[in-house]
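Support case: user asked for a sample of complex input and structure output to validate their parser. Sending the pair below.
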Amino acid sequence: MLIATWNVNSIRQRLPHLLRWLDEAKPDIVCLQELKCLDDAFPRLEVEAAGYHVETLGQKTFNGVALLSRSSPEEVRRGLPGDETDTQARYLEGMFPAGRGVVRVASIYLPNGNPVASDKYPYKLAFMERLRRHAKALLRLEEPLVLAGDYNVIPEPIDASDPAAWVTDALFVPQTRAAFRGLLALGLTEAFRACDPAPGRYSFWDYQAGAFQKNNGIRIDHLLLSPQAADALVGCRIDKQTRGWDKPSDHVPVVAELALG
DNA sequence: ATGTCGCATTCCATGCGA
């Protein structure tokens, strides 16, 4: 079973890329982020015609997350628990059939948090703490669980081509990295790094200054696996080629293969 | 090279978020 995450940076702008990539990669479950539209504006019919069930949590202009799946979810949760006043569309979770069992998958668009001196940064940290608490509760279910999305976190220096350029950035400051380690400390496995220890592997390249041509990127899109999912991990890859297509997203898909029977 | 993109409104120009 292939489970993927992709920040598409506007689903309406990226629909041709999404359809091409679905056809080529044939993923079973896809977590999308940055839809940048309301639910009614999501190109549902086109994605359904490609063979996918669609669940969305949209928002006008910003944010917005979706779950695409070959099989319909048995349960869906909209929004991250822990703050009823949070109106930003950043979390969508579903439980899907997988072999003889199930897999629970969340699509997460974690706040960027820049600039660190603004109120955006405490919001990011609070969101990460809410995510940690919710993940802790989900882990008690002892299910295969995949928390996938744009984490807006550079976990380690190896995950940036120029780490020095990010030292004061909300994606890389020590408190952000500590919060990410707090998630891993629950017993979650970060799928890509578990499979590939090499430097130079990125999931995002800025649109500016020829960043992609120079491979001046960062790795901020992650799939975090529960022990039951990690036990089934076969491999994980980054579909870098989509960044070279015409009018690309600044992020590319990250795809994990799980042997779930 | 201080080099881009997508969205919305202030609507062919600008501000915001990334």
